[in-house]
Amino acid sequence: MKTQVAIIGAGPSGLLLSQLLNKSGIDTVVLERSSREHVLSRIRAGILEWGTVELLREAGVGARMDAEGYPHDGCYLSNDDEIVHINFKELTGKQVMVYGQTEVTADLYNAQDAMGTTIVHGVEDVKIHDLHEAESYVEYTLDGERKRVTCAYVAGCDGFHGVSRKTIPEDVRQEFERVYPFGWLGILSETPPLADELIYANSEHGFALASMRNENLVRHYVQVPLTDKVEEWSDERFWTEFKKRMPKEIADKVIMAPSIEKSIAPLRSFVSEPLKYGNMFLVGDSAHIVPPTGAKGLNLAASDVFYLKNALIAALKDGDLSGVEGYSEQALARIWKAMRFSWQMTTTMHQFEGEDSFTTQMRNATFDHLKTSETARRDLAENYIGLPF
Ligand code: APR
Ligand code: PHB
Fold first, then answer.
1. Distance between Cα 185 and ligand 2 center (Å)
2. Nearest CA residue ID for atom 21, ligand 1
3. How many independent structural domains does the chain possess?
4. How far is CA 234 from the centre of its chain?
5. Fewer CB within 10 Å: C terminus or N terminus of the chain?
């Protein structure tokens, strides 16, 4: 096979890039390790920045999001029983959209089907070659047979455990990492949301988040030790812990409905530089991971895709290489700011085992500052709704 851009991975990064490039008349081949059913069954975050909303519309996949998503004007933060409202709309003029990443992925698949693009599932042993030649190629095994796609560019959209990042020699790569000593236990449950907007709650028992998908489906989380196993968390144990961490007026409204999904995800901040190696570019989780506090994961993938599709269109249509040359620097500038925001929100909202009383006072002071200073709230709002692309 021959294509202009070989895309490794059919998560949101790979599918959105493929969609935008094909819409501009650029040919792609997407190579995905898992089955389509598996990709579509993954439950991930559910908050889209407005820049992401607009990019999805540009990609032609905005219709269901606009019909079924919920624009939110703000969110709540709590510290024990005290609540502060961050009014994004008033502070920044912008909103965010509540619409699950699982739905975004489904919409992208449907749009790719309608355009007749090539997505190959079940590929094994992907290897990327000749990244410093005029033409590169990607090899893979499908049904026991070794195959090859020749291309001008490779987009590494294959997530944290993919092959693209590891194709860059170690002496070229620089990695930055912070692993947090806790994870998030998440449940999906068919019960109405507890408030009109999300609640990020801190308490002496740890962090909890009340999120939602629709009028009768919630996504809630509690901070748990990394050593905990899902099997140790009955629904009753989850709800009891969740209630302890929410402010009383919210906790009183909790209905302990059964969970329909339950999983634990570790929290990590990670960046690998550079994002360009010869003809290959890293996009989304293959290059960076954020902790979910602040919901930046999918939104950062979207801004990477925005920069890269512009760069690739300029290179492949007009021979203008300035965008591809500048991609890494341009994308990293925004990535680092989202890293800072999600790290700060994680450290101020979670309890660290064995933390000293000074740390607790710093958390309380941060919360107090948010309560009393509009400037502090605006800073949080500006980052939460997403810095401009
Ligand atoms: N070959 C082919 N495909 C691969 C390989 C490989 N060696 N390794 C991984 N993949 C596929 C995975 O199966 C997955 O479908 O790459 C895809 C990567 O998708 P994601 O992990 O979802 O990463 P990305 O598309 O960058 O999405 C950004 O936003 O909310 C966050 O972390 C969340 O998934 C989310 C991310
Ligand atoms: C979610 O709805 O899954 C969600 C929302 C906000 C976050 C993280 C996850 O910060």
1. 12
2. 159
3. 2
4. 27
5. N
